[in-house]
Amino acid sequence: MGIKNKKVYRRNRIKMRVRKVVNGTASRPRMTVFRSNKQIYVQLIDDLASQTLVSASSSDKMFGEEKITKTEQAKKVGKLVAERALAAGIESVVFDRNGYLYHGRVKSLAEAAREGGLKF
């Protein structure tokens, strides 16, 4: 009996290992990233209240139908989530890469969020 999808299994193991340690609070929420094949999503989550405080994604209406690469898309989402977080009074977060490797789209999103004013 083998594992159906080794890549997903590996990511879930990493995700659970990280989630044992990383927790978000109202003052310092957890910034979690999810990337699908076409879109990228970010949420700032207060784990104590089990509540999403701020969210942003590349499927938001403000992105429209312009042709940009996925990495550029991730940069825009990073800046957008930083803008929304600062408007909500959130300055520092705990970064949760959700089992994804820190390169490519995840890295560009994180760097754009830092440039936007978030501290992590």
What does it look like?
- It is built from three helices and four strands, in the order αβββαβα.
- The protein has about 120 residues and is α+β, with helices and mostly antiparallel strands.
- The chain has a single domain, classed as Nucleotidyltransferase, domain 5 (2-Layer Sandwich), CATH 3.30.420.
- The protein has a four-stranded mixed β-sheet with strand order 3-2-1-4.
- α2 packs parallel to α3 (about 105-115).
- The relative contact order is 0.20.
Broad shape: globular
> Low-confidence parts, pLDDT < 50 over ≥5 residues?
none
Beta fraction: 15-25%
* Secondary-structure element pattern, one letter each: HEEEHEH
Largest sheet: 4 strands, mixed
CATH fold call:
Nucleotidyltransferase, domain 5
- Return the CATH architecture: 2-Layer Sandwich
Helix content: 25-40%
Order of strands across the widest beta sheet? 3-2-1-4
* CATH class category: Alpha Beta
The secondary structure category is: alpha+beta
Radius of gyration: 15 Å
Rounded average pLDDT: 93
Give the distance, in angstroms, between the N- and C-terminal Cα atoms: 41 Å
Supply the number of structural domains. 1
Total helical elements? 3
Present the secondary structure layout:
Blueprint: H1 6-19, E1 30-35, E2 40-46, E3 51-57, H2 70-87, E4 94-96, H3 105-115
Parallel strand pairs: 1-4
Antiparallel strand pairs: 1-2, 2-3
Helix pairs in contact: 2-3
Key features of this structure:
120 residues; alpha+beta; Nucleotidyltransferase, domain 5; 4-stranded mixed beta sheet; 3 helices; 36% helix
Q: What is the structure about, briefly put?
A:
This protein has 120 residues and is an alpha+beta fold. The chain is built from three helices and four strands, in the order αβββαβα.
